[in-house]
Amino acid sequence: MEINGHEIQFKDNAVFLEENKILILADVHVGMEEFIRRNGVLFPLNEKKELLKRLKNLIVEFKPEKLVFLGDFLHHFQKVPYKVYETIRELNSLLKNYEIIVIRGNHDIMLEYILKENTNFKILDYLLENKILMIHGDKKFDIDFNFDLLIMGHEHPVLEINKQRFPSYLEIVQNDFKILVAPAFSNIASGVKINELESNFMSPYLKKVKKEDIFPIIIGEEVLKFPDLSKIEKFL
């Protein structure tokens, strides 16, 4: 699919930028399973196994040169669970031949501490390449960026159809640029229904977005781009 002249592929809640050879994952929330366990939910969620398996499959398919984790790489905790270090070590081993950028998200309060021994990971507040701005989305930068496509996470959008929820990408049309909101890559993190998001977005970049600007995209056997939210919300 082409968005503002940029060729983009979608698969398994990830985004692949053809021109940059960048694989983008938003809201991975490493450590969320352990956080849930500590709150009394004891059944296994296979966080590490699923993350590594899905990431390997994406790398095999797209053959990226760079990986960008688009914020909330970690879940929110003050004392780091041991299993988080274990997951990071295995990620570091899997990705040792790639450039790895981790964009700081609002959950990433322990990011520098946890990644200090993993030199493959470079921590940034944003990344701008070929007029594509990549951010988490929790804050707005007081910088005059020259971009025509903004890619962000933070919102965890899902589309609910017949009481079934599908992780959804959102293409959002603005005057001078377009926005692509990626779904959470985490297989545990909950999603937020798209028809409950309009006017209630968390990101300052989306506060003035209207239903007519929002075009949901879901991935089935093919890429399905829906009409704008104002036209489909009565069916959701």
From TrEMBL:
GO MF annotation, one: hydrolase activity
All residue ranges annotated as the Calcineurin-like phosphoesterase domain in the record: 21-138
Top-rank taxon: Archaea
SUPFAM superfamilies referenced in this protein's UniProt entry, alphabetically: Metallo-dependent phosphatases
Gene3D superfamilies hit by this protein: 3.60.21.10
PANTHER family with a match to the protein in the record: BLR1149 PROTEIN
Designated name of the protein: Metallo-phosphoesterase:Serine/threonine-specific protein phosphatase
Organism: Methanococcus maripaludis (strain DSM 14266 / JCM 13030 / NBRC 101832 / S2 / LL)
Taxonomic lineage from the root: Archaea, Methanobacteriati, Methanobacteriota, Methanomada group, Methanococci
